[in-house]
Design goal:
Nuclear Transport Factor 2, Chain: A; four-stranded antiparallel beta sheet; 3 helices; disordered N terminus
Length: about 140
């Protein structure tokens, strides 16, 4: 995912969470973005990373990227609006595992056209915290 709609600030805590959870942003991805808590599963990290793309939080994306695959910089595309996330499946990635996968479909809008990104992402634990490793082919 290299696209994102930038926001000047994070959404209010009472707004719906961009990840599609029924919980508001302040009780879902907001605490993760602010560093107040950590994702307990690979899916929770995937959802919080999608939300970070949606709100333009490149710093969170870099913090939650595995050291061995993290790019030196990350430029988010302000023309892209992330619209919806659909989790298609998960593999392991629970508090009892060291690795996990999350397959997802992310819908975006750019220049008036809708598109989608499908990925099967791989996550691992580094220093006890879930981080994004890479996309499986």
């Amino acid at each position: 995912m290299s696209r994102s709609r930038r926001r000047a600030t994070a959404p209010p805590d009472t707004d719906p969470c961009p990840c599609g959870s029924p919980r508001p942003y302040g009780r879902c991805c907001g605490p993760l973005h602010r560093g107040e808590s950590a994702a307990s599963t690979a899916e929770a990290l995937m959802r919080s990373r999608y939300s970070a793309f949606a709100v333009g939080d490149a710093a969170y994306l870099m913090r939650t990227w595995a050291a061995g695959t993290r790019p030196a910089t990350l430029e988010l595309d302000p023309r892209t609006e992330w619209v919806r996330l659909e989790i298609l499946g998960t593999g392991e990635g629970t508090p009892f595992h060291h690795e996990g996968t999350v397959s997802f479909r992310a819908v975006y809008r750019e220049d008036g056209h809708e598109g989608e990104l499908r990925e099967n992402s791989r996550f691992v634990r580094e220093d006890g915290a879930w981080v994004y490793l890479d996309a499986l082919a």
